[in-house]
Amino acid sequence: MSELERIAIEKAKEAVHLDRQGSREAAIARYKEAIQILSRLIDLTQSPVLHEVYKDRMRQYLERLNELNSEAAAKPVVRQSVSSASKDELQIEPVESSVRWSDVIGLEDAKRIIRESIVYPWLRADLFPLGWPTGILLFGPPGCGKTLLIAAASNEVNALLYTLDAATVMSKWLGESEKNIATLFSKARKDISKGRPVVIFIDEADSLTAQRYLEVGGEARARNQLLKEMDGLANKNKKEYLYVIAATNKPWLLDEAFIRRFHKRVYVGPPNAETRLQILKHYTASLRVSDDVDFEELASMTEYYSPADLYNICLDAHISTIREMFEKGLDEPRKISMSDFVYAIEKRRPSISKDLIERLMDWAKRYEAV
What we know:
CATH class of the largest domain: Alpha Beta
CATH superfamily of the largest domain: P-loop containing nucleotide triphosphate hydrolases
Order of helices and strands: HHHHHEHEHHEHHEHEHHHHH
Number of strands: 5
CATH topology of the largest domain: Rossmann fold
Structural class: alpha/beta
Number of helices: 16
Strand order of the largest sheet: 2-3-4-1-5
């Protein structure tokens, strides 16, 4: 119930935001999703108070949805030629990564698995008569390096990287979602035929492949087409350098059929004390740091802090010296002291909770495949 309520709120917020931006079709899609989830909540709740709250919210969204549909019906239809429509269907272009393995601190097990799946087959395909893993799922807390791992692997084999965040995918592909997914994979295979491996990276995969009771029609067709394309990658007679790599912070929301398509399911967890020490030293390498700074002590103080959190701590400590310089009229900022770091830690709580780690580890016990 609480998870459904949270998702309904998120969908509603997205709908209102898109509505204010003037993105009518995307807003309509989000309003429909919010209404469907609220309808489910109305059926499930036994609280008369919550029942009325959900009904009132659903009524408001239905009213706005009807208004948007009326506006769309009143707007003149502009017919596109086939060529111009195809250009509008998919405007996602690949990028080339400049991230190196040395930029990824820690995560040795994850790096090993990705090398075995992507780098080694590219270097010596003859050593893989049974093929190689083409589907990889990275799951773990936010800010722990999942995206960085993908960028480094893509750079290692000079791959083209298609990055799809879930919000863009769902708003762009609603209606003709399955056609656009097929177009993307076809485009990727053309890139492969030119001698370049391709990585299709789906960020926030849970938003695209959530379990069926949360879906609307467009989501179902999108997921089914994606499953079909991934089945094609798993064909034993094919040895394509086309990889689908997904990342999620909430793997328990993923559809079972989607999970099974990934040969490798890798937990990317928060850094341990030794890795936190390396990360802190890495981020402060270009800063002027006082001799009293004890990085080992700082590493021990930052349990459950993600690499992104550690970066922000270093940034906060650095900015505090700059602020002091301007306020006191100094010519240059002083060196960053231990107290600056301690103060920054005290003012910034970790973004990773113990409960989240426990839930992820429970999921890993059931589904992890390394």
